[in-house]
Structure formats: structure tokens, C-alpha cells
Amino acid sequence: MKHDLSKAPGTRVKLFTAFHLNLHFSSIEEASRKEVIDRCYWPLLELASVGNNRFGIEMTGSTLTLISQLEPSWVDEFRKLQRQGRVELVGSGYAQIIAPLVPWRVNAANLLHGKMTYEALLDTDPTVLLANEQAYSASLVDLATASGFKALIVEWENALRANPIEVGPFRSKCPQLVGPEGTRLPALWNSSLIFQKIQRLAHGESESADIIQYLRSQAGECPSYLCLYGGDAEVFDFRPGRYGTEAEIGKGEWDVVGRFFEQLLDAEDFEFALPSEIVANEAFQSSFEIHPQSAEEPSPTKKQRKYNLTRWAVSGRGDNLLNTVCQRMHDDLSDVPLGDDRWRHLCELWSSDYRTHITQSRWEHLMSTVSLPGRLRSSRSPASGKQPMAQSDRFITLTNATTEVTLDRLKGCSILDCRFPADARGPWFGGVSHATFEDVRWSADWFSGHLVFEAPGRHKVTDLDGRHAEVSIGEASVRCVVPTVLGPITKTISLLGEEPGLSIAFELDWDDLPVGSLRLGHLLLSPEEWDHSTLRYSTHLGGRTPECFECGQRDFDHGEHVSFLVSASTCIGMTEGAVWIGDSERLIEVKVRHELVKSVGLISHRRLGDKTFFQFCSSILELDETSRDQRPSLLQPIEFEMTIRPVRSIGGSS
Description:
- By secondary structure, the chain is of the alpha+beta class.
- Helices cover 24% and strands 24% of the residues.
- It folds into three domains: 9-312, 7-stranded beta/alpha barrel (Alpha-Beta Barrel), CATH 3.20.110.20; 315-367, no CATH class; 395-646, Beta-galactosidase, Chain A, domain 5.
């Protein structure tokens, strides 16, 4: 049935979609893929072929390849509807990679191999890119621009939460996203709240009239556009099997969606448009630049806070193992052209679909196909310095011409004070004693260079109890072995030879790693020695150029739990292995060896009276609803190494 679209175009809300198709969905078994095509993907194309429906449909190159192998006629039908202007391919890369968590070469290869596949199978070059899992970083703008994309679909709600002042005025526009290299791309807003309402309608949990009223409230005055659906296609007439609370499959859920779309068009104040048409429409174009990130939320993702970056980085069934495998493969490909098939294979392995809810059978098959990492040699330079001064039975000082570090033997050789003699202003980082911060919530002792493991229903495990530690003191290094209920923690703190700085290395000889949170290499800035009005941090979030975040007046804690089940609220990917922390005069570079074990960074920043609490640490394990027993994927021993040094500039020398 054709609908009357005689109403003036400027008074109708433009609706676009980005139906997300993913045959690699972590909780879908391989044997169910043909069923997904029959129950989900064919009805979508059938719906696109009727009335005035026009849909944007997103899929990775790997999903498109699978469909072409299992159901080539579906690909033929897509191409036909594409020629008719009824569907438009939205790009996303070859695999569903979380861009802010992987090195820039992997992201570049993913976009390249995605475009190669789209061209080969659909004879098309998509111009609109969907951020996978709606995980955004400004570096994605640079990457997308270099790959020829003209717009980027990101989620409105979390961009608004991350930076409400800049983002708020542009609900019905396509403002300019800005990359760290200065590139610009229009933002096309997705809405998780709207697509969740459509899902609830199909599952019999909401009413169409209520959704139409909500759409009108969100659209405001015309000209206006909305993303009507930017979620999974596999939730209609099928259930991926992630949660026990998933609704039972009703009768004809795609039919419910189709009738709702028809009802929308009958209302005469809505009409469908393809994503590229929204971007090209002058009514929605804007030259204003926005930054939908903040120091608190450096990489917004999708939906509620439990869907943060840690779920693809350091949780699941064995994220730290698989990500370490991928990191080593990446390092081995440094001289290989991005178009090589080995990069495509790495993109597949770094896909989010091998994380989160991956089934046992798929995980076992995956583990049978990858080479598990072995031990690597230390990269630490031979340390040199004066004979350490044992100031008392408790304190040890390592010193040379460039660095002076005081350790507390009673606290597992944690760092009390680190200073660089070339700078006369006092310590850079270390520990603070009880009641340094008058706020009783933060009045405890705080340290640097230590490890903390926490698990539900268990006592905390740390290396801060040095009463039974074995301490060995070298010329410019200290080795401390702390026994714990999980096994020994061996920590080695060494000076960096001639240049200022130090390294901290951990070795965990544990037979078990319970589901929980494992954070290590803490670094606490000396609260009275920094200009806290200019405090900032910079790191790579999937791109070639670091992104910088001003802490300002915001209090935040990336490691703050979201619920009893989700142990962190976000993280920084540190995708080239470094973070820089500084103010207007000082700058610290922290580097971690991701090839030993892939980790992410967590930052906490709070203003406490006239002082500021700023702490960085690395995490190799966090807890969420995807977490599984880590023993089958435990790296034995777990090794972690970081270096800390003062530098003059980001990426520069000491």
C-alpha cells in the first residue's frame, strides 16, 4: 500500500535505520546461522520491499561473506533492493572490532578489508560508517575519513551524557565530529532508547501509540530526523540466548514491526530516508564542532553503563588471553601491508564476537586454532645506581643521578616517594599517609606501585603486607616476593639506567584466578606538587595520534563499580601501550608491555578540599555478567611490566 506523502516535506520527521546484522554473534552457535538468515534477515528484506519503507542495513564484511556462502540468493535480493533505492549498506569494517581498544593499524586494516568485501559481494562502497557497539573515540573520525567514509553513526544518549554542554543543542542536526589529527565528519545520531522501545513493542511489552508519542517528543520541531532502529536484527523471531531473562518468542514479531512502520507512515508526519540522504540534507547539516567525550567518559559506548569497554577488554571467558594473543600477532605484522590476508585474520580474532557471551563450544574451537603465548624476555635496561640506602629496617631508597625512589618494605615495597633530582619541586608520585585527605572517605593510607585483587565474597588480595615478604636488594633494583592465598606475588622495581625513571614488573605464579578484578601498577600523583587546574591525561584510543582529556572540575573514577556484578564503569584502551599524565609544567609517561599481557588503564580524579586525588592503574581483569572461570585461559605465570619516566612532550624524550 502506498501512503500519501503529500504533506510538506519540511514538516515530516525523517526516519532512518541501521539494522545491525551479525552472524558471528557471540552467543549464536554456528549451526544456528542458517536459521538466523531465515528468521531474521529474509523478513527484513521482505519488509524493505513493501510500501514506502527504505532501510539502512549494517553488517560487517565477515557477516556478508557468511551470508553469501549460506544463502547467496539473499545477497542477490539485497543488491536488487539496493539498486531500487530501498536499502543502503551501512559500513562497519570486516569484523566487529571495538575501535578504542585495538592499535590503529588493526582499525585501518579492518576498514580496508571491510570495503574490499563490500565491493566484491555487493558492488558498493558505503559512505556511512556505524561505530561498532557504538564505542566511540575521536580517532575513529580520522580512521573513517582516511577510509573514504562521509559520516559516522554514534549513539546520542551516551554522547550527551559524556559532554552535555557541547552535544545537547544538536539533537536534530549532524554536527561535526573532530579527530585528533583535525579531520571532521558529520555525526548521525543513533538512539538506544528508541530501538529498545521497538524491541519491547515486538516482544509485547509496550504499545505503538506510546512509541509514536515518544518519537514526536524526541523529534521536536521540523526539520528533524531520528534513527528509528539502530540495534540487532537477531532479536525479532529469534533469541541470541545471552540472558535467561530474554522474552519468549511471540507470534510474528517481524509482522508487529512491519505494522508499526505502516502505522507511522499513516500518521503522515513521518517518512523514511536512507542514512546518506540524512547527511546530504542541507536542513540537517551543521558546521559546529562537538566532542562527545570527556575525561570521565573517554570512550562512550551503547545503552546502559554496564556496556562499557571493559566487557570486551578484560572480562568474558578469557579476554586477557585472547587479546594478548592478538597483540603479539599485531606486533609480528608490523612490516606487512594492511591488505594482506593475515591482517584480515587478525581482525576476525580481535572481533567482539569472541568475547562477552561466546559459547563454550565456540570458545573451545577458537582455542584449538590459536597459538597460545609463551614467555618473553624482559625488555628492561640494565639498571645502574648507587648502593641502595636502607634508612631503617622499613625503608629502602634507590638512587642514581636522575632518579630517587623510596620504598616501604612493610607495605610490600610499595613506592612512598619518587622524585627526579633535575626537578627541584618535590616528589612526582608515591604514597600519602593517613588523614592527608580530610574527607573521611579518602583518609586512608594510599600507595603507588602495588597490586590489588578483589572477588565477590572473598577477602582482598594485595602485595601490601610485607611482614613475611622476601626482599632482595640489588645495585639499583629491589625484588620483593609476597606470599598470598592465591600464590606468590613477585615484584621487581628497577631504575632505568642513565635516563630518569623506573620500571615495575610483576610475576604472579598463581594456579587460580577467580572471577573478579585485578588491578596493578598503581600510580598516585603527589597531591601538593601538581597544578591541578591544568591536570590532564593523553593516550591512544585506536588511532595513530593520542587524544587529550582535561580533568577540570569533574570528579570521576573509571574503576568505580556500576553494580555488584559490574566492577568498572569504563577504561582507557592505551592502544599503543602508553598514557601521558601532566599539568602545565610536568609530564609523566607510563608505558606498559601489552605483549606480556594486554591491559587497560583506569583513572580516578577527585577534588578533596585544597588537594586533588589523581590515581592511575592498569587492569588485566574486571568483573561483569559475561565473566567466566579464568583457569582454562590463565597465562602462567601472569607477567606485567611498566615503565614510568618524566618526559618533555607526549611521545618525546626525558
